[in-house]
Amino acid sequence: MLHKILAPIVAWMIAVMAAMGPLGVALLMAIESACIPLPSEVIMPFAGFLAFQNKLTFLGLGAGNPTAQIWIAGIFGALGCNLGSIPAYEVGAWGGRRAIEKYGKYILLNLHHLDQAERFFARFGTWAILVARMLPVVRTFIALPAGIAKMDRTRFHLYTFVGSLPWCLGLAWIGFKLGENWNTLGTYFHKLDAVIGVLLLAGILWFVWGHLKGRKK
User: Fold this and answer.
1) The model's pTM
2) 91-104 pLDDT tens trace
3) Which of 36, 55, 165, 175 is a Cys-bridge partner for 78, taking CB atoms 3.0 to 4.6 Å apart?
């Protein structure tokens, strides 16, 4: 049941990456970094699996070298994080917390998410951008407090890229290794699909519940 519900979402992400290659990876990661709950934990492993299949070249780069394509996946994933962070940063810089409170509801963003990111940013300062990009959940929303604080844009994008690259590479490597062991793991993949479905659905339900809870406060 869960697999049937979530299969179209997963199939769409795979189709985007299969059709657009590294640009599709960048697009999907940009969507995630724009505070829209499209998990990189699903995007990047599929990118790594495409690299294993030798289907993630860019302008001829990496052709015939799946290992090099892992780097292509990681670099384009990190670039996507930068692109997706631009609107989130600019909203924070332009309108501050008040704008986020007013318009965040349209992307299911509530004050709880902002509070988490702000506390993290307050604790680590500008270094929070570098650290947060390697952490689930916080990584998606950290651009907002950076914009509110009007962090230097050059440093913001540099830290975003440097912090996102190991995250994207690590997840792509996992997908690549799963591809290498496809025959061995093949009999278990239907179970893995179910696990992924449960995790995705749980994440979506948690996100929506947190949003509704936040609006009641």
Assistant:
1) 0.77
2) 888 877 777 777 66
3) 165
Return the ∠ at Cα 202 (arms to 200 and 207), rounded to 5°. Answer: 95
Task: State how far the Cα of 123 lies from the Cα of 197, in Å rounded to an integer.
Answer: 34
Q: What is the largest CA-CA distance in the chain?
A: 55
Domains of the chain, by residue range, sit at 2-216
Q: Answer for the pair 100, 90: CB distance below 8 angstroms, yes or no.
A: no
Please, what is the Cα angle at 130 between 85 and 44, to 5 degrees?
Answer: 65
For residues 183 and 52, the answer to whether their CB atoms sit within 8 Å is no
CB 143 within 8 A of CB 89: yes
For the beta carbon of residue 131, count every other beta carbon within 10 angstroms.
Answer: 16
Closest CA to 98 of 137, 148, 146: 148
